[in-house]
Each structure stands twice: as C-alpha cells, then as structure tokens.
Amino acid sequence: MRFWPGAAPSLPATLDDLLDQHVQLSDLLGTSADRLAESVAGAPSAQHALVMLERHMLSAVRESAPQDPGVAEAVQLLLPWQPVEISATARHLGLSASQLRRRFLSSVGVGPKTLQRTLRFQGFLALAQAGAAASGRRGADGMAGLAVDVGYADQAHLSRECVRITGSTPTALLGGDIERCVCGHDHTASFQPFLRTRASPSRRL
Questions:
Q1: Which domains does the chain have, with CATH numbers?
Q2: Mean pLDDT of 18-46
Q3: Which residue has the higher pLDDT, 189 or 145?
Q4: Which of 7, 59, 110, 121 has its CA 20 to 30 A from that of 79?
C-alpha cells in the first residue's frame, strides 16, 4: 500500500521514527489491526480482501488529523516536472528551511531535499516504464532525454544518482530495456497525472 508523500493517516509515531523500520501493524493501528486481519483472512477472494483493506484505510484517512497543509503544498512544488530550489519552496510557504525540514520529517519521514531527489528518480523510472518519448530538450533523446525531462543535468547525473540510490546503473536497473524495471515495481502508479501529458512513440498516455 502506498500513499502520496505527506498523505498517510496520522500515526502514533512521527514518520521519521518509522523510516527504514519494520513494525507490526498492531503497533500503528491498535486493536483495529486485528479486526482488519481477520476480515482480510476471511475474505472470499483476493479482490474482496483488497476492497476491505482499501475501505479500512480510506476510513482511517478520513478520521485522522488533517494533513499538514504546508507540507502538502511543498510536495506538489517538489514534483520532478517543475524543478524548484528547497530554499525557494520554504520562502514561498513563509517558512525557514529548518522549519520546513522539521515538518517534512514528521509528515513524510524524510527531509524535502531527500524527497525531491527520490521523486525525481521515481519520475524517471515512471517515464521509462510508460514508454514515454523524451521531449527533445537540448537535443537529447532516449534515456538521456528522459533524464533531462525530470530535472537531471544530463545522463551522467542520472547515472550517479541511480548508483547512489540503488547500487546499479540505469541500464542494469532497467534490465537493458528502457520500458522495464527489474525490481518489478510499478513506478507509473504515482505519476499518472504527469504521464497523461506525455506521448510515447506509438500512443498517447
């Protein structure tokens, strides 16, 4: 289950305390986790189980404390198709850089710069998986063009970030096929509004 950055329901712990941790669902949801587990286990099919899980989480989101509006706006500004400096984002929101970072750590789990780098990399993978054509800026095409489109300076910049984040080069991560990521994860799910504005060589997304 994935949430938009900053959009997870309110939890007993701040999200930076949960970063890179494996925790029991009951530690986060209390006794409702046991009821949810029983309902899912007794579902007549996997599809019914997914519907139950979705309904439960939607209810949890509606009943949770409101999302930090400053973080929500900042997340939109940090999406990869509109590169912006973190300092400019903080000024736009009337916050200092340190205030913005504290609010991000609580609501997202990482600081704004880390989120921006992560979203940029995920944006590249989403474009690659969707078979999107590069926009042609700076005369770049293929992988280099997609890298530029999401905010990398060039393909070398993408390669350095890819190795830093995943330990693999972009070519190795994509399995030699720009439309396939060997991790098997659907990176396009979180970027549908962006992808719908992009063209592939053979279709409109």
A1: 15-63 (no CATH), 65-205 (1.10.10.60)
A2: 87
A3: 145
A4: 59
